[in-house]
Design brief:
With 99 residues, the protein is mainly alpha-helical. The chain has two domains: 53 residues, Winged helix-like DNA-binding domain superfamily/Winged helix DNA-binding domain (Arc Repressor Mutant, subunit A), CATH 1.10.10.10; 38 residues. 74% of the residues lie in helices and 0% in strands. Helix 1 runs antiparallel to helix 2, helix 1 packs across helix 3 and helix 2 packs across helix 3. 5% of the residues are buried. It comes from Methyloglobulus morosus KoM1. It holds the Pfam family HTH_Tnp_1. One of its GO terms (molecular function) is DNA binding.
């Protein structure tokens, strides 16, 4: 059983293909055939392009996600420290009041 290796396409070609398919009056299947790619592949690229545009994500950059993760990690560390401090204070006051 020979498995075919999936073709990889450069981002520039993907962008060009999506813009060509969206801007053309031709059906997407015909545009895909002209470009030598599968119609399903072109549909997938168009969906990803539309989703990225809808979300406002710039092509290929996830910097805002990394920034958000970093911020959330800092916030989580602070909340963990506050929780531990409150637990210690509760234990202390429980000991003082029970005497």
């Amino acid at each position: 059983m020979d498995q075919e290796k999936a073709k990889t396409y450069k981002p520039e070609f993907r962008d060009f293909s999506v813009k060509m398919a969206i801007g053309s009056d031709k059906p997407i299947a015909e545009t895909a055939r002209d470009l030598g790619i599968s119609a399903n592949t072109l549909h997938t690229w168009i969906s990803k392009y539309s989703l990225a545009k809808l979300v406002g994500n710039t092509a290929g950059t996830d910097d805002h996600l990394y920034e958000e993760i970093k911020r959330l990690q800092k916030e989580n560390a602070l909340l963990t420290k506050e929780r531990d401090l409150l637990r210690k204070a509760a234990a202390y006051f429980e000991g003082v009041l029970s005497i």
